[in-house]
Amino acid sequence: MYKWLIGLVLLVSTATAQAAVNVVATTPAMGMLAETVGGDAVSVRVLAPADRDAHYLQARPSMMAALRGADLVVSVGAELEVGWLPAAIRGANNPGVFPGRSGYFEAAAQVDLIGVGGPADRALGDVHPAGNPHVNMDPVRMAQVAHALAERLIRFDSANAELFRANAEAFERKVEEHLPVWRERVADAPGVVFFHEDADYLAKRLDVPVLGYVEPLPGIPPTARHLRDLVRDLEGRDGVVIRATFHQERGPRFVGEQLDWPVYALPLDPEVGATADDYFDLIGQWVDAMAGKL
Description:
Rossmann fold; globular; four-stranded parallel β-sheet; alpha/beta
């Protein structure tokens, strides 16, 4: 009898020790980072598909169901998901992942942001007074986030502290290996026009001039007048135009045709389930596009 009880206790203890931390990531890039840092010690569910703009999703029952069983939510933050994540968390009724709790993690809160302090006026477009939220487009900041995420995961699984920290360090080393290669590829890049302010971190990291935006204001569709003014200001210069795949094609195509510049459409996120190498490949595509060599 006692042997049976002891065996049952050991079985339950082993199962508990081996239970993966249940992570819900808002975007594929955040899911990639959680998988990379957590390894086999985490189970990751991603809420936003790679081909959708994370600004404009809606809270769905499937999101609430995923969040209901989550130990940890890994979000981009800086109000990128403000239109849907708070509602999904409320609907999930899981107090452990409410903002301010250990189960809520924002990548943007772990690093310095660009574009901080603008007026919170929607007449100025899709503004983010807390700063530009698109930190996933800067691998260096992503490495900083990886270390912070490792420490957060340790709160849920201290037995794997060494694993989490080692994985974060390995990710940072890969970033450091790629940086010189990326910088060399864009050394002669003349400049870029983005559709939105979503790749500004990468351009700034690699010292590529941002010459303008297809949007007149963040989140505001381009007008004919704005596009004509943009073309006039850039006539006689070299450069490239890059949009995210979910942005409309017409405005970037007009600018490219008028200036005789190449136009590229690229994903902002890797696919759901992507590895760190997939993420680096995606950054490499943006680097090649900024260099006009894609």
